[in-house]
Prior knowledge:
CATH architecture of the largest domain: 3-Layer(aba) Sandwich
Bound molecules: magnesium ion
Number of strands: 15
Helix content: 25-40%
Number of domains: 2
Number of helices: 9
Mean pLDDT: 96
Amino acid sequence: MLWIIDLDGVVWKGKEFxxxxxxxxxxxxxxxxxxxxxxxxxxxxxxxLKQAGLEGEVVTSAxxxxxxLKGKVESAFALGPFGLYEELALAGIHPxxxxxxxxxxxxxxxxxxxxxxxxxxxxxxxxxxxxxxxNTDKVYPTEGGLKPGAGxxxxxIRVSSGRDPIVVGKPSKIAFQVASKGERDVIVIGDxxxxxxxxxxxxxxxxxxxxxxxxxxPPEEIPEGIIVVxxxxxxxxx
Length: 238
Ligand SMILES: [Mg+2]
């Protein structure tokens, strides 16, 4: 049995831990993989999980992108947070600013994006380099309201290059393969139907939709293979 556990809206919400869920996760039997669509490094997530007393393997969309490109290219032009560069380097892919050396383009949420970076990335993609998106989230919530997500940057490059990206984050098959490593009996825990539960359903896994994150009410139609719980404490009582 393998649990794939989403982070935002399940283990924490912004800066706050969701202790009721955390205590329940500690009691789950089986292997645990913590998974986020954020293009961050595994190290940053592991560090935060430790603060909550949780341990397990970590899979981020930066790590999935790096695994996807590993052995295929030696270098990439990347737009994203520091953790994306770190994961690429750990997989033997040199992040480079020198466009003529870049063999791929990898795009996550780059808070320092500029017109020039979009122009370089678009040129490379138009010329035929692999175009990898860590995720295509349109917006993400902050204390100051919704802010543009990685999808906004991916879209700029997609439109100007005329080519669609390979999206490696949830709910993609690639994401499930990297997280599950061929394990058959998998349950995905998450707070979003369109990413967490979709990934479960499309890969023959089961799902637990928990209402502690963005989804506040159970969906009108609950697909077979999915259960809905208010908190993960309720899951232990079943
Ligand atoms: Mg979530």
